[in-house]
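Hey, I'm writing a tutorial for new members on how sequence and structure tokens pair up, and I'd like a real worked example in the thread rather than a made-up one. If someone can provide the structure for the chain below, I'll link this post from the tutorial.
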Amino acid sequence: MIGLLFLIFLKRHIKANQNSGPESWKLFLKHTSLGVAWTSTALAFAAAISITQTTSALQFLTTSFRSPVVMEAGLVLQVLQWLICTFSFFFAFGLTAIFRTRAGSTSYDNAPPPPPSY
């Protein structure tokens, strides 16, 4: 969510200052957006792994020691965690791809337009 906020700030800054403004501020917002997006992806991945391991460990302990309470791994929770991780990865990867292309880059403001494709 914070990465999306920095991305909105970057977009507003680029639209407001088409030919002026410090390049360092644009680069700061760009790098911060990418850093926060990839950090959230890493945290989502860590959360998905921890949920999977914790539920599997609880299920193993309750079935192997013949406990009166049997815990089962919640499939819905695991699926939601892995979906969040996957969507976060695709968002961060797409953001990286946009910033690496010529159209999405902030460092090509004065470059000539690309030739038309036929």
